[in-house]
């Protein structure tokens, strides 16, 4: 090229997209051997390469030329994902030269290899420009450099090496869930696979071998779609599963749910029907279901044919149940007690009034003959009239190590305990075996005043993952599956920011606090605002809102539209001015989410992603909207009107640009009369299923008004 840009010249608010493309052997006699990009333009590069780009020197070293062997960027934005610049050269910035407030955002596995310059072999940053590497990305520079001075490698003890050298003198064997990174100058120990992924076999040598989701998660392709957690009460049978259909229900050996018509029946299908001694089903559990109520001498028994000791010895065993005990419960009462007498090879959970006679702490007992082999006390009684969820797990016997006991209450682990003699449930002959619920083998222990629900026994020891899968469905305070599954998403992929309208303070310029206090508040920059609760506009319950007119300007903090984002919101038009509601304030970014040009349910992330709006009898109906900037359509945009019963996928194009501040009414001639209820922001990509779960919880909020604060992490 005689001017700038050997292959590409873009300027004056233009947009350029390169995907799975290659530019090579190009040169310019001015700036930008391959690409010249200027004047408030956007350049997006996905899985593309730029090789052997250079400057044909007119005046070597001139700041008016000889800049950016690969890219010259001026007053513009570059989104650079899983792409590479190699074998390129200039006097300033062998790979990239950034000028006049430009932004170059690298993500994914991006590589800058063998580039050369007198100043800035890889990147030359000038004039308040920014070169950023997204969290979790692998950006490598492989110029020859001594290990002791390079920022791109770690020192190997006693050895000096070049960054690009393979450490063949070391011999490493990695187990599952790790790999040895032979492409960098690093120490021998293996690297862990990225979160929620694992290798399929031991001995892996590259992160590319981390191509399988861990147990309980699934993904069609871990390199293009994050691993998604299975729904509550399900898990996967092994690693490397690809779809939600691979999530299978847990199979208990026995299960008592105490529901009408099945009050004593074993829902596992194995036929262990309870015998009832006076208990009723009139008590509601945390999840609003019936539970077995005990108010005095009532109790139940499990059939003695169930050999719990044999289960523990051969495969391990887990007891899982919810209970509620009032302060009137005896300080020695048992929740369950399996064994042959008082005491005789018992295993059980109850209260121990010996250590704290006035309260009776929660106790987990395991007897060998007539002596306690293990007695684990929580130091808390839990006789507080509230529902609690318990897991008591004992692994199988082994000649190599004693059995391990693990105990959780309300999904919090209290013990992981290995007895140095043995943690073994002793066998009891069936003719002597009595398996009590809400009764102790010790007559003097007193009774339970409370309830038990969802009593289950499994033939394997639980992990923390198994506990959480059960707690979300059976023991938590979540009012519905939608809320439980949305909370699961929050736990697995913690949001960057959460903004509930009930936290809005119109008396402060720092007016909208982030719910957890982990980000700065959104600011009220101009105009007047109203906040409160309202019914209507598609909401059948009282829901929180913040509203304003066309002069009311809200601005969220820096990073509120991350370079890689997922955003879910509840918003609506609230008057006759109907342009954008949630938008961006960055002059480099043309962006809106949910509302635009009088349409509802549309998305424009520097390009249309959903351009056909929803039909509604009122333009002022609430809209639930989730969107992300990846290429998996149509699930990248999910939406529903507040009066709807289901979320729909609506993406018509993928991708999109982030890297700006979320705002309302910051764009001239695009102001609206608006109301916003909820904003959830992630600096990572949610899957289709995860966005659907969050969207359904937001939609349910419009119907019930139950605070969404209970799902946040």
From TrEMBL:
Pfam family name, one: Laminin_G_3
Coiled coil: none
Entry-linked SUPFAM superfamilies: Concanavalin A-like lectins/glucanases
Name recorded for this polypeptide: Laminin G domain-containing protein
UniProt source species: Hanusia phi
Lineage: Eukaryota, Cryptophyceae, Pyrenomonadales, Geminigeraceae, Hanusia
């Amino acid at each position: 090229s005689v001017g700038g840009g050997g292959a590409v010249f873009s300027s004056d608010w233009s947009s350029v997209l390169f995907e799975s493309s290659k530019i090579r052997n190009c040169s310019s006699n001015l700036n930008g051997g391959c690409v010249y990009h200027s004047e408030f333009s956007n350049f997006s590069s996905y899985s593309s390469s730029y090789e052997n780009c250079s400057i044909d020197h007119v005046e070597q070293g001139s700041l008016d030329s000889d800049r950016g062997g690969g890219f010259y960027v001026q007053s513009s934005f570059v989104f650079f994902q899983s792409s590479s610049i190699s074998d390129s050269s200039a006097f300033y910035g062998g790979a990239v030269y950034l000028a006049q407030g430009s932004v170059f955002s690298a993500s994914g596995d991006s590589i800058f290899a063998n580039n050369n310059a007198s100043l800035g072999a890889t990147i030359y940053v000038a004039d308040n420009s920014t070169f950023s590497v997204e969290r979790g990305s692998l950006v490598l520079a492989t110029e020859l450099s001594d290990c002791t001075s390079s920022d791109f490698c770690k020192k190997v003890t006693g050895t000096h090496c070049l960054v690009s050298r393979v450490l063949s003198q070391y011999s490493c064997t990695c187990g599952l869930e790790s790999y040895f990174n032979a492409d960098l100058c690093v120490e021998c120990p293996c690297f862990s696979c990225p979160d929620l992924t694992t290798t399929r076999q031991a001995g892996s040598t590259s992160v590319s071998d981390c191509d399988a989701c861990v147990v309980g998660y699934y993904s069609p392709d871990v390199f293009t779609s994050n691993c998604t957690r299975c729904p509550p009460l399900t898990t996967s049978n092994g690693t490397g599963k690809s779809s939600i259909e691979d999530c299978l229900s847990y199979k208990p050996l026995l299960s008592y749910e105490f529901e009408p018509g099945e009050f004593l029946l074993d829902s596992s299908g194995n036929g262990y029907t309870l015998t009832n001694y006076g208990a009723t089903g009139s008590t509601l559990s945390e999840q609003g279901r019936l539970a077995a109520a005990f108010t005095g001498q009532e109790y139940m028994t499990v059939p003695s044919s169930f050999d719990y000791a044999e289960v523990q010895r051969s495969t391990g065993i887990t007891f899982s149940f919810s209970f509620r005990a009032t302060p009137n419960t005896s300080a020695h009462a048992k929740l369950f007690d399996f064994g042959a007498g008082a005491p005789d090879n018992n295993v059980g959970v109850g209260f121990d009034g010996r250590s704290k006679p006035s309260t009776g702490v929660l106790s987990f007992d395991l007897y060998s003959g007539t002596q306690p082999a293990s007695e684990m006390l929580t130091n808390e009684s839990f006789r507080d009239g509230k529902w609690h969820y318990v897991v008591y797990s004992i692994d199988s016997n082994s000649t190599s190590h004693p059995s391990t006991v693990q105990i959780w209450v309300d999904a919090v682990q209290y013990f992981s305990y290995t007895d140095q003699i043995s943690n073994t449930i002793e066998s009891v002959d069936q003719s002597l075996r009595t398996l009590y619920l809400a009764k102790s083998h010790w007559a003097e222990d007193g009774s339970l005043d409370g309830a038990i629900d969802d009593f289950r026994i499994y033939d394997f020891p639980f992990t923390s993952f198994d506990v959480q899968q059960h707690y979300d469905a059976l023991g938590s305070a979540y009012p519905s599956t939608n809320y439980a599954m949305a909370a699961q998403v929050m736990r697995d992929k913690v949001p960057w920011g959460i903004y509930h309208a009930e936290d809005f303070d119109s008396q402060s310029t720092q007016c909208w606090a982030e719910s957890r206090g982990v980000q700065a508040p959104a600011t009220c920059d101009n105009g007047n605002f109203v906040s409160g609760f309202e019914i209507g506009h598609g909401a059948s319950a009282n829901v929180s809102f913040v509203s304003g007119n066309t002069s009311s300007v809200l601005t969220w903090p820096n990073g509120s539209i991350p370079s890689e984002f997922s955003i879910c919101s509840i918003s609506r038009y609230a008057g006759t001015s109907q342009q954008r509601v949630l938008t961006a304030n960055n002059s480099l970014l043309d962006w809106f989410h949910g509302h635009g040009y009088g349409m509802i349910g549309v998305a424009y992330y520097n390009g249309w992603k959903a351009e056909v709006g929803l039909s509604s009898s009122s333009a002022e109906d609430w809209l639930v909207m989730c969107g992300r900037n990846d290429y998996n359509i149509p699930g990248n945009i999910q939406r529903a009107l507040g009066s709807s019963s289901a979320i729909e996928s609506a993406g018509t194009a993928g991708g999109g640009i982030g890297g700006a501040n979320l705002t309302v009414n910051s764009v001239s001639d695009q102001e609206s009369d608006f109301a916003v209820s909820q904003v959830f922001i992630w600096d990572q990509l949610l899957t289709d299923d995860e966005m659907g779960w969050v969207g359904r919880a937001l939609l349910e909020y419009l119907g019930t008004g139950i605070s969404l604060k209970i799902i946040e992490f």
